[in-house]
Amino acid sequence: MNGLTMNQIEVGQSASMAKTITETDVYMFAGITGDLNPAHTNEEYAKNTMFKGRIAHGMLGASLISATLGMHLPGPGTIYLKQDLKFIAPVRFGDTITATCTVKEKLEEKNRLILDCAVTNQDGTQVIAGEAMVMPPK
Predict the structure, then answer these.
(1) The dihedral of CA 133, 123, 28, 86: what is its sign?
(2) Is the pTM of the predicted complex or chain greater than 0.85?
(3) DSSP-based three-state secondary structure for 2
(4) Mean pLDDT of 4-21
(5) What does 87-110 look like in DSSP terms, one character per residue?
(6) Which pLDDT tens digit goes with each residue over 56-81?
(7) Ramachandran angles phi, psi of 37, nearest 5°
């Protein structure tokens, strides 16, 4: 199973992936990463924050970008080289978020792609913005 190669990819091409974020997802992510910040894991604490309740880890939402790149565009065999992220709005338990990656630039001589990355929630609100650099499979 191989992803798309440089000559199979066009500027403007995009791929998306969606997931509903559950309480289980947040607790498993907290356990895997060791990030037990009470903003994610303690409702009594979190209800007194600016978010008025628990929120998902920003990197949990951003991980859908990684999954989109690694499984869809360019897909299996892709090497993730760089990612810039801006966390715009919180992801709440029960939100369905969609990561969309769009090819912005092809650097053919180096076998690199620059992609715009956006994560939106079920209301169309952008929660994460970024730009990735990847090396598609040869």
Answers:
(1) positive
(2) yes
(3) coil
(4) 97
(5) E-SPPBTT-EEEEEEEEEEEEGGG
(6) 999 999 999 999 999 999 999 999 99
(7) -45, 130
